[in-house]
Write a structure and sequence with these properties.
Blueprint lengths: L1 H35 L7 E7 L2 E8 L2 H6 L11 E11 L2 E2 L8 E7 L2 E9 L10 E2 L4 E8 L2 H4 L13
Parallel strand pairs: 2-3
Antiparallel strand pairs: 1-2, 3-8, 4-7, 5-6, 5-8
Amino acid sequence: MQNKSREDFYLKAFNVIGPIAGITLVFLILFGVYLQRQPRYLPINAAFHSNNQAVKLEVAQQPQDYYHGLKFRRSLPENTGMLFVLKEKEIIKLWMKDTYISLDMVFLSNGVIKNIIEAVPPCKTKICPKYDSIYPVDRIIELPAGSSKSLKLYLNQKIKFTY
């Protein structure tokens, strides 16, 4: 008889705890997804000058920083951007998945601009176009759309970064 009451106790406990645990698990998963879709801000650790303007740059040096980049940002102030520092030179293809603002992409090799792609629009579809560096590069700068013109950036221009 005592085993029956113990079984009833455990059954009642599982009937209460089970739904609470399930709801908690769903909440934690949804909260994790929410956190993944938030913009990340890196320290401003670099700058450069062009056309008498100083540009402050967040610096991405790790793969997780490259991946997240400027995703989920709703705005990017003028004369700010992100510098991607690659471990070695390579031909890069970038896309705008989950990026909500138009950007200028500036591809550099040894501090020299090799390619500029202006006003790249946000991607609003599941399959996003890729934007190619064309040449092997070791640095990429992403800036608010129109910045490359206002800064008067041009191909083969030497950019000197301060860190």
